[in-house]
Amino acid sequence: MLRRTFNMAALAVMIGMGSAVAQADDKTVVIGHFGNPTPMQLVAASDELSKATGYKIEWRKFQSGTDVIAAMASGDIKLAELGSSPFAIASTQGVDLQLFMISDGIGSAEALIARNGTGIEKIEDLKGKKVATPLGSTSHFSLMGALENAGVAASDVTVLGMSPDQIAAAWSQDQIDAAFIWEPVQSKIMVNGKMIIHAGQVTGKPTFDGWVVNREWGEQNKDFMTAFVKAIGKADDSYNSNPAAWTPDSPEVKTIADRTGAAAADIPVILKGYTFPSLKDQASDAWLGGAMAKNAAATAVFLVAQKKIPAALDDYSKFITTDYLNAAMK
Fold first, then answer.
1. For residue 119, what are the domain limits?
2. What is the mean pLDDT of residues 121-132?
3. 3 assigned to some structural domain
4. 161: which strand partners?
5. If 0-12 CB within 10 Å is exposed, 13-18 middle and 19+ buried, where does residue 47 land?
6. Is residue 2 part of a domain?
7. Orientation angle between helical segments 138-150 and 291-305, nearest 10 degrees
8. N or C terminus of the chain: which is more exposed, having fewer CB within 10 Å?
9. Does residue 239 share a domain with residue 170?
10. Are the CB atoms for 41 and 260 separated by under 8 Å?
11. What is the mean pLDDT of residues 80-108?
């Protein structure tokens, strides 16, 4: 679903478009998300945010970062989930977005899966093999980082750009040897494969999903932004405080299953593949307070090498804000 990639062609449409999401007649806010089985689904399933803000909330699921940015360009949405790779691309191209919150840090939720019978036991075994991943995505970023860390030249591996659906189809026909991918395809191909390494194990190449907002809209709707951060933070804290309580039979997991279509039995394991930093941690130097600007710069350098963008910026800090996190913690 190319969740974390960005359609460069959409830029011409995006720049300068700014129709309001919160319509004066019905005060509706459309929020884009990827349908991940994470704690934020509890907020989407409740009327908590509507009661706190007076806005009607519509949660709209998107299959890709490309689709998210196109919808923001058209004025349909101003606030959405977006992966670290498309965030770097969008900000490099001058799209007026700000990363204001971390949705999740990616660990085993994205992983390199080797098909049984290929003889792949470690990264070095990828030489001469066909490995699929959505190009420009966080999974692609992790794959190339894993190759680099293992001293494997990218030219020694055939990296195929495929969408998640294409990966699943190619896997079923034995057309690829391995794939670096996320759920739900990850679980499907694991039936005839095994995990070699996951994103959280790729040293020095962190990836994440973040929440981004159109800068102008966010500044005009500070109360809503603060309420949003509080609601998501509350759901994350609920999980972090007692993950063991989130069993397949728990109300939280059942709600997530209903919202996403994921099997309740799988959700506790999937949740362990992510990290959900507290608001305090997110505002610190380890996240939005410093490290994320450096992360965006490093990701941009990778994207330049992949010919996704012509050049990286010197500084990405203006595309990141801790204002709404700090307001939510007061």
1. 110-201
2. 98
3. no
4. 133
5. exposed
6. no
7. 80
8. C
9. no
10. yes
11. 91
